[in-house]
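Name: Transcriptional regulator GlxA family with amidase domain
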Amino acid sequence: MTAHRIAILALDGVMPLDLAIPAQIFSSRPETPYETTVCTFGAKTHTAGGFAVVAEGSLEQVRSADTVIVPGSEPPGLPPEAMLAALAEAHEQGTRIVSICTGAFALAAAGVLDGLRATTHWQYIDEFEREFPAVSVDRDVLYVDEGDVLTSAGVCCGIDLCLHIVRRDLGAVAANRIGRGLVAAPHREGGQAQYVPAPVPAAGDASLSDTREWALHRLGEQLTLRQLARHAGLSQRTLIRRFAEETGTTPLRWLLDARLGRARELLETTDQPIDRVARECGLGTAANLRLHFRRALDTTPTAYRRTFRS
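Structure predicted for Transcriptional regulator GlxA family with amidase domain:
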């Protein structure tokens, strides 16, 4: 595989977890093409949440990278002009630009987000919207993919975004393998809400994780909202409310995303005909699978298989 150079640009006050997420997900592995360098401007050593971060690269690596990732910093500040110029130059020459959490402030200050949809941490989103009126702010997502510019919401949404990038680059199998190594949650689509009112069940409540796990083992069946509610021991209305509280999406939207994820794995790892793939992942017919692939991925199952088949 051709090497894909990734520059992680550490700003002053970079948040350790924001920095560690892309460093871990895009670390060098025999089966992935990523070559990752942590870069900075000026001093090579920064303090980040009590840690000393020593950067190997400089703005030169940022200018020559295939992907530049800007982790969040706290509080989000305005980077030096030379750093903003390097981001703008990289964007102009077609480099993929990514932010995690409040790293979106640096991208917006460099003009990279002008006229695009973007997101950032929900605690800073009002400030972000005031400071950068040229950016179309999306408040209710985990991440936004605008092609060669991608932004994620707060902190751990960076995991979702980075795995999404791996999925784009290398396919679902590679992304799922890395996700399992991180013991990360199953793939979450970017359209889910970033701020979940009750991410941890209240005392006495039971999580719906068992029901989701039950459904994942039955994707080939025609699962209904009633069946999901019966398994959870809830009314359908309560299931919908609790599902949104725990996942930020609806049960049927979650089920469709899970089925598309399963279809992608089957297309990458088997020679099964398209109609059989559709049946096994619960989408019924080849025509229905093609419809959802076109809507979600802007491609066809056949083209996807041709691109990502090992």
